[in-house]
Design a protein that fits this description.
Elements (H helix, E strand, L loop, with lengths): L2 E3 L2 E3 L2 E6 L2 E8 L2 E6 L4 E8 L6 E13 L2 E8 L12 E3 L2 E7 L5 E13 L2 E10 L8 E3 L1 H4 L3 E3 L6 H4 L3
Parallel strand pairs: 4-14, 6-13, 7-12
Antiparallel strand pairs: 1-2, 3-4, 5-6, 7-8, 7-13, 8-9, 10-11, 11-12
């Protein structure tokens, strides 16, 4: 049986409309594995969290420094205890600082960077805050700012993007 929404079949994709027109939303589960090509990290486990506003990635080192006369952020994603850790310092001049309130209500200043992630074989430019997630099960958190109008979250499912890889 095929269900129809706004005249479109619903299955892996859901179609919604707003004042700006019709848009497609892919279904994603409560967790997945996505790629970070700029960091040479592939199939990195992520938690999909509609309760979180933004996205965060585990980082155990971040420092503003000068490189070729330009102020840049030097940082290392993950940490030595993670199997994908490569001990590589990444540099970006495209960074900001923002105040983020944690799930327990504590505010802290974090560095924020933009990077490309691959989800369902589609590249997206996403802003991630750098934070210590060592005690968390997943090194990456994907929040609703990124999910909005792109994904419908079904908490009974997992690894949909990872399983759809060609």
């Amino acid at each position: 049986m095929i269900f129809m929404v706004f005249g479109f079949p619903v299955g892996k994709h859901v179609f919604r409309s707003d004042d700006y027109g019709m848009y497609e939303m892919k279904t994603i589960g409560r967790r997945d594995k996505i790629d970070f090509p700029a960091f040479e990290l592939y199939e990195l486990p992520v938690k999909i969290d509609t309760g979180a506003y933004g996205c965060a990635i585990h980082c155990h080192y971040a420092q503003v420094t000068e490189r070729d006369g330009v102020e840049v952020l030097a940082f290392k994603v993950l940490d030595p205890s993670h199997p994908e850790y490569a001990n590589v310092i990444h540099y970006t001049a495209d960074f900001t600082q923002k105040k983020v309130k944690s799930s327990v209500g504590v505010s802290q200043m974090r560095y924020a960077i933009k990077t490309i992630v691959i989800v369902f074989d589609t590249p997206y430019k996403v802003t991630f805050t750098l934070t210590d997630r060592k005690k968390m099960k997943y090194p990456v958190l994907i929040g609703r700012k990124f999910l909005n109008k792109k994904f419908l979250v079904d908490v009974s499912l997992k690894d949909l993007s990872f399983n759809s890889k060609q």
